[in-house]
Amino acid sequence: MSESRWKKFYQAVRNVPRGRVASYGQIAELAGFEGHARQVGYALHALPANSGVPWHRVVNAKGEISPRSAGDSHELQRMLLEAEGVKFDGKGRVERRYFIHSKT
DNA sequence: AGCGTGACGCAGG
DNA sequence: ACCTGCGCCACGC
């Protein structure tokens, strides 16, 4: 199945340290599939809740929690991130410095 | 086998 | 800094 492709994404997500976030694009890049950010989103959507993958550390390039087509997981995501010390600005965006590539 | 869809990203205006 | 349009590509119908 194409699940093996998704496993690369999941593996990349596991590499995101606690208290940090990465964009879908960064995950795709780290997994060796640069430009496939959309597929990362698809893979995470198909991810079982108890997979052990820190999916909540993945946000879009704007630093915003991507809106779901359904479900309430975006609320849970913000909760989990804040629990790790990640802060949001007034517009609900994660500050740049929390991104794994950010030097500050 | 074709068409629309989506947890995205980037370039332009 | 914000909004819009186009590109990407696997999945489901």
Description:
This protein has 104 residues and is mainly alpha-helical. It has one domain (3-98): Winged helix-like DNA-binding domain superfamily/Winged helix DNA-binding domain (Arc Repressor Mutant, subunit A), CATH 1.10.10.10. The chain is 38% helix and 4% strand. The protein contains 4 helices and 2 strands; from the N terminus they run H-E-H-H-E-H. It has helices at 3-14, 24-30, 37-45, 73-83; strands at 22-23, 58-59. The protein has a two-stranded parallel sheet with strand order 1-2. The longest helix has 12 residues, at 3-14. 29% of the residues are buried. The chain binds a DNA duplex (13 and 13 nucleotides) through residues 2, 5, 23-25, 28, 35-47, 55, 58-62, 65-69, 71, 73-74, 77.
Q: How would you classify the helix and strand content by structural class? A: mainly alpha
Arithmetic mean of pLDDT: 91
The amount of helix comes to: 25-40%
Output the strand order for the largest sheet. Answer: 1-2
Give the CATH level 1 class.
Mainly Alpha
Q: Give the uncertain stretches in residue-range form.
A: none
Please state the second-level CATH architecture. Orthogonal Bundle
Q: What order do the helices and strands follow?
A: HEHHEH
**Sheet having the most strands:** 2 strands, parallel
Which features would summarize this protein structure in a list?
104 residues; 38% helix; DNA-binding; mainly alpha; single chain; Arc Repressor Mutant, subunit A
